[in-house]
Amino acid sequence: SYKFLLSNHIKNQRLDLARELFDKIPSPNHQLYSIMITGYAHFDRLDDALRLFDEMPVRDTVSWNLMIKGCLDCGDLGMARNIFDVIPERSVVSWTIMLNGYLQFGTVEVAEKLFWEMPVRDVVAWNSMIHGYFCNGRVGDAVKLFEGMPYKNVVSWTSMIGGLDQGYGLNLEYKDALKVFCDMLKFGIFPNQSTFTSALNSCCRLEALDRGKEIHAAAVKLGLGTDVFVGNSLIVVYTECGNIIDAALVFKGIGEKNIVSWNSIIVGCGQHGFGIGALVFFNQMIRANVDPDEITFTGLLSACSHSGMLQKGRCFFEHINRCNSLKVELQHYVCMLDILGRCGKLEEAEKLIKSMPMKANSLVWLALLSACTVHSNFELAERAANSIFELEPHCSAAYVLLSNIYASAGKWGDASRLRAKMKQKQIVKQPGCSWVTLRGMRHEFLSGDRSHPLINKICEKLDWLGTKLKEHGYIPDPRFVLHDVEDEKEEMLSHNSERLAIGFGLISSVQGLPITVMKNLRGCGDCHSAIKIITKIVGRVIVVRDSSRFHHSKNGICSCGDYW
């Protein structure tokens, strides 16, 4: 048919052939004109589209709307408005297309004026305006408009939840997004896949596992428990909140898994240090005839890194290099360097950096520098740090890692000189912070922090733990206090941010339930040793997520096998 032939030419960018065919068609109808005009607009041939539009024997409202949208697609807002102004009869669709155009170009004030000038505003127009407010950072206006809507459909609620969830800059309103989701259920509006995805993303950002479980239950009740999009979001929530077992159960229950499903569970296993689990899921993925992509191998390499699987890591890395359908990316090199560094193959790691086809950035050198910290290789550490300083002269992480190497070896003079240099250059070290999310509220702690209202009870618990730890043979390791203050080292270790967060978790949560602590920096070896013993003392599971991975400690044993 003419429709098929025209569409095929345009799809394959043969616009001139499409026009030749069009000109031979006797009395082309509106649909064929629309196909041709849309094709011109799609490939930025606006003049051709306008000329063809002028040639149309009869132009109805649909034709005018199509031309307005074509102008907007080509980036010509002025021409779109000119056509809008001369439409003989504007429909609500005409107004909404023009409204979206102004919002798309960021002219919110003009869009507002147009919106209130509309003779009829349907729910689509209201939703467009709300979405436009969010896209342009006007969260308050979006909320106000939403509250004033005469009628809300599922798209309205989803736009609201999605807009609050995205935050658009500094307006991170995740709690409000979850409140809107709850209101939606109260009003009897059934959420769709997009609604659940946005709400679950808010749970993930808030690390609100309890709320995530509630939304999971709502999805199951509405028959979306096995939906792939909802399931993928649930995997991420459970993984990021420290519950990899439930993440795996959700994955198992998804009806038709896609590449995102497989990648999410493999990456999740990597984050939690379950290397064998990641390999098992990868093998299942291959048997299911799902082709792995670059993200899959990032997850696998990360899993190998956290589990000490050097040879497996090498095999995966070599496979990416050999496979024509895959592209070796910077993140793969960072993961491979981490694998080599953790295994003590520092010279091989440095050779790998020199062989990279792209220029190494600070992340690459930081991976090597971090490995030097673990293996106390001063010479290579200084080379890696200098490479970082050439790329980022004010990189605080490099200064801190190098200072830590000096301090842990008792080279206080070198460490002091480095800290003085940081002060001179006004480089500020990111303070260590740990937090626990309990009943939807996040409780944050800094080292030595006494601002929490329960600080006295927390310290009492920590003092009690300190006595019990000594009874169990625990001896504080002063190497992990990176300051030359010999008499205060034990106090610094016992009241750092991580211990304060654990103390709070112990006195504030139900006995027997796991405690999950999040940390913005990499954990220290002394805390790692202490936490394992604490789990024996209190009979509870303690999950700690630092900047690198998750640690699951139970009955004196950590899931990392002390390899981290």
From TrEMBL:
BP GO terms, sorted: RNA modification
Keywords (A to Z) from UniProt: Repeat
The PPR repeat ranges on this chain: 29-63, 91-121, 122-156, 258-292
Single GO term (MF): zinc ion binding
SUPFAM superfamilies documented for this protein: TPR-like
DYW domain residues: 473-564
Pfam families: DYW_deaminase (PF14432), E_motif (PF20431), Eplus_motif (PF20430), PPR (PF01535), PPR_1 (PF12854), PPR_2 (PF13041)
Presence of keyword DNA-binding: no
Keyword match Nucleotide-binding: no
Family in the record: Belongs to the PPR family. PCMP-H subfamily.
Protein's name in the database: PPR domain-containing protein/PPR_1 domain-containing protein/PPR_2 domain-containing protein/PPR_3 domain-containing protein/DYW_deaminase domain-containing protein
